[in-house]
């Protein structure tokens, strides 16, 4: 049996604009997804996916037939059908990249997640990276041909440390970032109880008027560099607020703090697609209690979630 593992991700800076070349700061998470593969000669793939509680949330068999993967499951639930469709799409692209891996072979595959797949920590990207590791193919190309996106989540999946990530004319550029804020005990993450569809978020960004993309990219890249260097919580908060203001204008949506938490005394930073998934908040226990009173119970300390 072979086993592969990939880290989840938090995009601290550069959301949306990472698609246009902004230097962004990505944080690999301690929570991720594993993929266990056992080879056989069945010419079938037997697939099972377990959630964070080790309960089966998806299960199906596929017959391998000349690059096609024919689902044999009789489960007709819409979630199951959509998951099977997406998985077939990934497997067919993987086949195109390495057909020899499926020639006369079958596999028993088990995936295990450490996080709730609604959280937006990278259910798709960790799967893509694990499959790419298994088949020894390019994870960035596999992502591009299936889900799309900038690829920062693949870079985070492969890293054990914070990274800067930037799309350049020569392709993705990912470098280890010396980011370990001395005030991290005053940083925490809150799940907003709303799953954000990353493809829809990207489409919304793309549909906005683009008056000064270069200016936005340069400003956000500069904020990323400053955030990595800052050792002051107050300066960190000022930089996050400036970042939020720039993105708010670019996507024509109000800041989450203004819209949902105007009385919050700390600073709130949206993460990923605005309006869903996690936010970063600053403060100590009183600020954490504020969110609990509002009904937000999924809260992680910075060091609890980030590698």
From TrEMBL:
Keywords carried by this UniProt record: Kinase, Transferase
Entry-linked InterPro entries: GHMP_GYDIA-like, Ribosomal_Su5_D2-typ_SF, Ribsml_uS5_D2-typ_fold_subgr
Gene3D superfamilies, sorted: 3.30.230.10
Tagged with keyword Kinase: yes
GO molecular function, one term: kinase activity
Protein name listed in UniProt: GHMP kinase
Organism: Christiangramia aestuarii
């Amino acid at each position: 049996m072979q086993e592969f593992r990939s880290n989840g991700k938090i995009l601290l800076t550069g959301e949306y604009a990472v698609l246009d070349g902004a230097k962004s700061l990505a944080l690999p998470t301690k929570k991720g997804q594993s993929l266990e593969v056992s080879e056989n000669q069945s010419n079938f793939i037997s697939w099972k996916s377990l959630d964070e509680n080790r309960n089966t949330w998806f299960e199906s068999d596929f017959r391998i037939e000349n690059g096609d993967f024919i689902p044999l499951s009789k489960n007709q639930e819409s979630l199951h059908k959509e998951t099977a469709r997406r998985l077939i799409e990934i497997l067919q692209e993987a086949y195109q990249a390495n057909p020899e891996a499926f020639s006369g072979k079958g596999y028993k595959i088990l995936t295990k997640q450490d996080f709730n797949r609604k959280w937006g920590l990278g259910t798709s990207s960790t799967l893509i990276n694990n499959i790419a590791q298994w088949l020894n193919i390019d994870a960035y190309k596999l992502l591009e041909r299936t889900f799309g996106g900038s690829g920062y989540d693949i870079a985070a999946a492969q890293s054990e440390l914070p990274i800067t990530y930037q799309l350049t004319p020569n392709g993705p550029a990912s470098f280890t970032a010396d980011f370990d804020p001395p005030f991290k005990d005053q940083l925490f993450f809150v799940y907003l109880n709303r799953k954000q569809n990353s493809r829809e978020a990207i489409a919304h960004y793309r549909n906005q008027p683009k008056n000064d993309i270069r200016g936005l990219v340069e400003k956000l890249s500069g904020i990323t560099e400053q955030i990595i260097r800052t050792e002051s919580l107050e300066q960190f908060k000022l930089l996050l607020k400036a970042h939020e203001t720039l993105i708010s204008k670019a996507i024509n949506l109000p800041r989450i703090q203004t819209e949902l938490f105007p009385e919050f005394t700390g600073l709130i930073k949206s993460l990923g697609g605005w309006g869903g998934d996690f936010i970063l908040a600053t403060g100590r226990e009183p600020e954490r209690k504020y969110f609990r009173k509002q009904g937000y119970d999924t809260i992680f300390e910075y060091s609890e979630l980030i590698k």
